[in-house]
Amino acid sequence: MKAHNTLRWLVFLGAALVMNFPVIATFVTAFKGPGEVMKNPSLWLQAPTLENFITVFTISDRLNIFAYLWNSLVAALVGSILPIIVAFPIAWAMSRRGYGRAVLFPLIVNIRALPLIIFAIPLYMVYSATGLLDTRIGLGLILAIVNLPLTLMLLVNAIGEIPLELEEAARVDGARLPRMLLRVVLPLCRPAFVTTFVFGFITGWNEFLFGLMLTTRVAVPMTVGASFFFASSGGGVQWGVAAAVMVVAALPPLLLGLIMYRRITGSMVAGAVKG
Amino acid sequence: MAEIRIENLAKSFGAANIIKNISLTIPDGDFCVFVGPSGCGKSTLLRLIAGLETATSGQILIDGRDVTALEPYDRHLSMVFQSYALYPHMTVKENIAFALRTAKTPEAEIAEKVAKAARILRLESYLDRKPAALSGGQRQRVAIGRAIVREPKAFLFDEPLSNLDAALRADTRVEIAALHKSLAATMIYVTHDQIEAMTLADRIVVLNEGQIMQVGSPRELYQRPANVFVAQFLGSPKMNILPARVADGAVALAGSAARLAAPPGWAGLASVGLRAEDCTVTAPENGVLTGTVVLCEYHGSGQQLLVDTAETGRIAAFTTANRDLGAGNRIGLAFSTDKLHPFDTGGTRLA
Predict the structure, then answer these.
(1) What ipTM did this prediction achieve?
(2) pLDDT given at position B85
(3) Bond preceding residue B237 cis, omega within 30 of 0
(4) Could you tell me if A47 and A126 lie in one domain?
(5) Which chain B residue has its CA at the smallest distance from A269's CA?
(6) Is the pLDDT of residue A267 over 60?
(7) A41 and A99 share a domain?
(8) pLDDT tens digits for range B275-288
(9) Among the listed residues A186, A112, A189, the one whose alpha carbon sits nearest the alpha carbon of residue A148
(10) Residue A44, domain extent
């Protein structure tokens, strides 16, 4: 029995190693000095060093990692919170009144199926005409569009799961639509808000295409900024520095996911109606 | 408090006519119970009054004011839902205070009213709990507390006890009756349980297939049911309906040689109703009907019999006589004409 269990864990460990090999390799490389990167391809570190990270945070002649992080943070926050604000009332109307369920809802959800690149040229022209080019808000707005379908889908489902009697009770209790939405429906959607926020933030943070296309200097996000480090200070690719910048770029969404994970699951409506 | 008047109210969902042209007046302070089998439209009628459904035609008047087109929040009614419908993210106190806060009542007054409602419903020690941490009975009391905390024009109850266990149901029923006395409020109560209907109501409205079968006090309905449906719906076991006709001024029951004097107005008689407790068990030769006992249930206060009479089918009888009756015994059943409920061919009461 015990041997059986050990074997099982060994298999799991092997599978985890194989599947996460690129991630692990990048992580390990980030701690290798410039000399070791060239000589030692193994996952085993000979002389671990923080040199690459120090480089990442101190190169400031052309590259400013803090600016990239800040740009990504603002754009990802706008891109994840704005669709929730916009989608919540739409989701209620779709879920409870059936507005747009036949055509609009499938249409919005299927925006995700389109390759985003087809928006590139019109968007670039609109952005340059409206002055949104190379702004954090501009990048956030397009990320909001990217996130809207999933947000709407999750919120429509979340509202559909709230017992209708709760809304009816609120209406009989004298609550008009805005109060009912804010005091009864909204608090009960909290788990769905957390879920959509986490997914939206991660999607926004990791977005590369629009970041590359719509920003040049001021609003460059972390994903695009990270690529600048690959060939910083001329010459060939500095693999150690590149790995370190990838680790830094991956940390915020990773931490957010870990912190929020427990809140994503779990229902709010326990005790509302007899189950 | 208010009088509620319903005039020619109808409600259809697509092709299905759930409520068919109902007119009804519920006087101020009345405890009115809507009762009927599943799907009879009783809950829909209540939801129409609450404003949760819109009427297809007809009018609803509260205190003489036409509210048919008003939203629920403009009707000033309270409702207790079958599923309780407590706000799960709010504490008991917040649940009860919700309607008052909605009405922008001053906080001091809210605290006072919530405390009073909590005292009446014995919820004081649970005020800071969330609904998930309460038992079914406590949740039901919170739902009632939410309704009584403000002064609505009327209280609506939609099968409020059906999710409680039997003992709790009896207790809560007594509490609701006491609440009605102390508040002197108009209450409309929907149930499919005839015991609840009989014990709580000043006035029972029996519904079937979207129509009112009869309106009256529990006593009137039990003693003078207007039709076969009401006769069989109220009372347990349900009333026996025996085919009968009037011939030569006497009531003749199918399969019985006995002739009972027919009171005036029984001319169109097609069947008679007979309650189980109105039958007396006799020796076979002394009964109006004779039959064989098929089933004998001991109820403590008496015995309930199911008697197979060849011609008139199976008849339920209730006897307090502590005789040793068992399946297979041949007995007679005796009763007098004043215990019979006369119905015509359409099932409507005669006389």
Answers:
(1) 0.86
(2) 93
(3) yes
(4) no
(5) B88
(6) no
(7) no
(8) 999 998 888 888 88
(9) A112
(10) 2-58
